[in-house]
Amino acid sequence: MRRTILTLASLAALIAVASPAAQAHPANDRYCIQGRSWGYPGNCQFASYQQCLATASGTSAYCGINPRYAFSQQRAY
To answer: For the chain, first and last CA: distance in Å?
Structure first.
C-alpha cells in the first residue's frame, strides 16, 4: 500500500513539474493607473485602456502600459 501511494505521489509530482507554466501576464494587467498617489508602476489591474481611463477620470492620474508586460521577452513557440 505504501509503495502504491509513493508511486502515485511521485507520478503526480512529475506531471506537475512537466506541465506548462501558467501564462506569465494575464490579460487583466496590461494597463496601469499611474500618478503621484499611485506611484510607479501604479495599480496594474486593468484589461483595457478604457477601463483605466474611466478610473483615472477626474483625478490627476494617467494610464500607461504595464512595464512588466511591455518589456517582457517574447517567446517563440
So the answer is: 42
Burial (Cβ within 10 Å: 0-12, 13-18, ≥19) of residue 46: buried
pTM for the full predicted model: 0.55
With beta carbons less than 8 A apart as the criterion, state whether 73 and 36 touch: no
Angle at alpha carbon of residue 47, lines to 45 and 49, rounded to 5° = 100
For 44, half-sphere exposure in the C-beta direction (CA atoms, 13 angstrom radius) is: 16
- Summarize pLDDT for 22-39 with one digit per residue, the tens: 445 456 788 999 988 888
Place of cell 500618478: 35
76: pLDDT confidence band, cut at 50, 70 and 90? low
CA distance 65 to 62: 10
